[in-house]
């Protein structure tokens, strides 16, 4: 039975690289109907914190990467590690050493050549004589990563270790330990690192790297999972939108490349917008509410059905949940700001003033403020004025939204409502347009 684990050290927030390691382990387990365990490697007492443990677990849950066993905390397993230390001490394969004035235990490295067949990179050989005797138990009584990792992987009967290739250099030490303890080593698969768009190792300077940041920016977990899955794995054809079920069905380590993948933010944004389109509007409303609240909207005061219509109007336009408000903020306020350049370009001409006056009058008389009636009314205005609709559309858009880009004009007006539409129009006529007041 396949048994894999994600075993983060809680010394930082869950980042994209960690999430990919977790995801590949999870997919591998689900593909094979095996077990996915979570193990918290908190043996570095100075650098580990509960805050990071919580963040990692919350991040995995948000991504939908449920674990079958655990979390197992290494800090609670000192007795077990000590048992193995004793075994190695009594067989002469480990010895006491002095570290910082206190007693530690070191492993006596043998001089053999160590070799293993990595499932992604092929055979890797190490000259063990180049590796010095390494610490198993530190002076503070806690095990080192390499030692605890081997004891736990062996005790948990982990069959495959799938982790970042920054651990390749640790593998010979771990293999030597398996040998010394007469335990069978698992199979290893080392994932190439993730690069930023410039080809350098992905880091904070490339932008958001923590899963939490993506959550706060309003990416959908399914979109992020899809995107992260493709950072090194391909489903075997050129599909880019791959559902979880398809991923589980198609995930194999053979399809994980041995070259580093690049993190392409534009692709992530595209993918997120695709997932947004696929999400039912009611669900989007639910997901958007906390983002609107955070942006200062009194969500309680917003009518649910109106919000759903607004979401539908913008569904193909917003890239993240946060982006929704950025694009629709003018719907949530009474007053809007007008950029002087935009006003100069679109509102300041006599012809426009005349048109907008006419629009104001025509709209004032409308009983029903609906898309169809609005369209009929505005088309009537341009006909009377003998101009094309294009002449009116942009100035009107600017007048009622403060922007040059928005969703369809008639739908926008309908959702804004008569009162606000007229108020904004007359504000513009009074403030920016040349000819006198209404
Ligand atoms: N605690 C290690 C890390 O966070 C895990 C390495 C492993 O999977 O063996 O990088």
Description:
- The chain has helices spanning 16-32, 50-63, 78-90, 145-155, 171-180, 211-217, 221-229, 244-250, 265-278, 281-294, 304-314, 321-328, 340-346, 350-364, 371-385, 389-401, 409-416, 418-431; strands at 3-6, 35-40, 69-73, 94-99, 102-107, 113-118, 122-127, 135-137, 160-164, 187-191, 194-195, 261-262.
- It is α/β, with parallel strands linked by helices.
- The chain folds into four domains: 1-75 and 192-278, HUPs (Rossmann fold, 3-Layer(aba) Sandwich), CATH 3.40.50; 78-191, 3-Layer(aba) Sandwich (Rossmann fold), CATH 3.40.50; 279-327, Glutamate-tRNA synthetase, class I, anticodon-binding domain 1 (Helicase, Ruva Protein, domain 3), CATH 1.10.8.70; 340-431, Arc Repressor Mutant, subunit A, CATH 1.10.10.
- The strands form five sheets. A three-stranded parallel β-sheet has the order 1-2-3.
- Helix 14 (350-364) packs antiparallel against helix 18 and helix 15 crosses helix 17 (409-416).
- The mean pLDDT is 96.
- Bound molecules: glutamic acid (GLU).
- Glutamic acid binds next to helix 4 and strand 9.
Gap from first CA to last CA: 79 Å
User: What small molecules does this complex bind?
Assistant: glutamic acid
CATH homologous superfamily placement of the largest domain: HUPs
**Tertiary shape:** elongated
How many domains make up the 3D coordinates?
Answer: 4
Strand order of the largest sheet: 1-2-3
List SSEs in N-to-C order. Answer: EHEHEHEEEEEHEHEEHHHEHHHHHHHHHH
Based on CA atoms alone, the radius of gyration comes out at: 31 Å
What is the CATH C-level name of the largest domain? Alpha Beta
Total helical elements: 18
* CATH architectural category of the largest domain: 3-Layer(aba) Sandwich
Average of the residue pLDDT scores: 96
What helical percentage do the residues reach? 40-55%
Structural class: alpha/beta
